[in-house]
Design brief:
single chain; 10 helices; alpha+beta; 5-stranded mixed barrel
């Protein structure tokens, strides 16, 4: 289909730079509340996008009307739009001919998952919670896409994802468990439900801890928020070019234990919206910033090469939507995340807790907002379980905190005291992103008050 639309557009706009993308996304979601499924929805959409650049002007359009008349109308609208569009001096040109990368194979079971497959995992979550009230979702998605342009680039891709996020509630306290994977079989609702229930039981009768700076262990569910903000505001090529990011290529900016890698091919993503092949991109290597994410436009402005991170959100720039923190090696937990009793999610996190004399265990960060992009100062709240750590043991559930903390400073040289040996993929609220996070033991986190004020 993409090739056919390119032919029509080339005839209608001879000599123009033309891109055509055809993407089919099948997204299905089963939600549960009060320990029962209350919503099952699915969407199967084929979208065709056309972008034209002619006479120094750029315009784009998209349509889900993919019959012959609908596609011709899309081309006609796009040609008309480019004639009256403002001059675009930043047009970077078309993506050159480049081969598709090697990507993770698609799990057929994930791509063709049924409502019954999702319900099976939800039932296992509910049963494992042992009678506690539960809520959450199980989501499956399957994407196939093709991209062509008038410079000869032609690339296709396919990927699938499964995500589950649920809470168990006891007397007003919640425990949470989440996981994402490209394989349906990797999502075990029973394991997640048991984890959430253990946290809910351990969070009963919390006490207030005075605000201040505390040593912390952030569980993978909390670290995913750190990674998301680093991706969007820190290692975003547009933010760097605008002087709004701390990232400086070649500088030793983070602790030597920190290596950050965006691995879109590892989850099956083959190309970006510019038609540039995705690549495994190391952003931070043992504390040293070595790269930032670019699309074609931001790369041209910086005199760099695109890294394959076009998102279609030009005002936001390019960012790494599959960012992961490399787990520690040699911990004895590299190949599995053994479940443990109590509030600590698994054995790799428990190993970090054992090294804390006095500090705080944090399950989740939410409602986070950026106060200053340059230092990546964030304010937000904890939720779904916070505990006091004393002499390597979790001793007391705590009430939720408000915090104000520079994520950059939290990971600065000397500030990272330990990284877990297992990186757990965490689902994002939007299906095209995923954060792969081990637990983190940090020297200091600035809690500014209770969540109530």
């Amino acid at each position: 289909m993409a090739e056919q639309v390119l032919e029509v557009a080339s005839a209608a706009a001879s000599g123009a730079d033309i891109e055509v993308a055809a993407d089919r996304t099948r997204l299905a979601l089963s939600r549960f509340a009060n320990s029962g499924i209350h919503q099952n929805v699915a969407d199967d959409t084929l979208t065709v996008r056309v972008r034209l650049h002619a006479a120094g002007r750029t315009a784009s359009g998209s349509s889900t009307l993919t019959n012959t008349d609908g596609l011709r109308a899309l081309v006609e609208r796009s040609v008309q739009a480019v004639g009256v569009a403002p001059v675009d001096p930043g047009w970077p040109g078309l993506a050159p001919v480049s081969p598709a990368p090697d990507v993770a194979p698609v799990d057929v079971a994930a791509g063709d998952a049924t409502p019954g497959d999702r319900a099976e995992r939800i039932r296992a979550f509910v049963d494992a919670a042992g009678g506690l009230e539960t809520a959450g979702y199980c989501r499956t998605s399957h994407w196939t896409g093709a991209f062509v342009n008038s410079a000869g680039q032609s690339i296709r891709g396919e990927s699938a994802e499964v995500g589950m996020d649920g809470i168990a509630r006891l007397a007003g306290t919640d425990g949470v468990a989440r996981k994402a994977s490209s394989r349906l079989a990797d999502i075990d609702g029973g394991v997640l439900g048991a984890r959430a229930a253990a946290k809910a039981h351990a969070a009963a009768d919390p006490v207030e801890l005075p605000p201040g700076r505390y040593e912390v262990v952030l569980e993978p569910t909390a670290v995913s928020d750190v990674l998301q903000n680093l991706a969007v505001y820190g290692f975003n090529g547009k933010m760097v070019a605008d002087g709004r990011s701390f990232a400086e290529v070649g500088a030793d900016q983070l602790d030597p234990s920190v290596t950050l890698v965006d691995d879109a091919p590892g989850v099956g993503s083959s190309h970006d919206l510019d038609g540039t092949p995705r690549q495994r991109l190391v952003l931070v290597d043992r504390g040293t910033t070595v790269a930032v994410a670019y699309d074609r436009r931001t790369a041209a402005e910086a005199g760099a090469e695109s890294t394959g991170h076009a998102t279609g959100m030009t005002s936001w720039g390019a960012f790494a939507a599959h960012l992961g923190l490399k787990p520690a090696a040699g911990t004895g937990h590299e190949d599995f995340a053994a479940e443990v009793d109590g509030p600590v999610a698994e054995a790799a996190t428990a190993a970090l807790v054992a090294n804390v004399e006095r500090g705080v265990l944090v399950t989740d960060l939410w409602y986070t907002r950026v106060l200053d992009t340059k230092s990546l100062a964030i304010t937000g709240l904890t939720r779904n379980g916070v505990w006091l750590i004393e002499d390597g043991e979790v001793t007391q559930p705590l009430s939720n905190f408000r915090f104000t903390q520079s994520y950059r400073d939290a990971l600065a040289p000397g500030a990272v005291l330990g990284i877990g040996g297992v990186a757990e993929p965490q689902p994002d609220s939007w299906v095209s992103a995923r954060w792969t996070a081990p637990a983190l033991h940090l020297a200091s986190w600035n809690f500014t008050g209770g969540a109530s004020g």
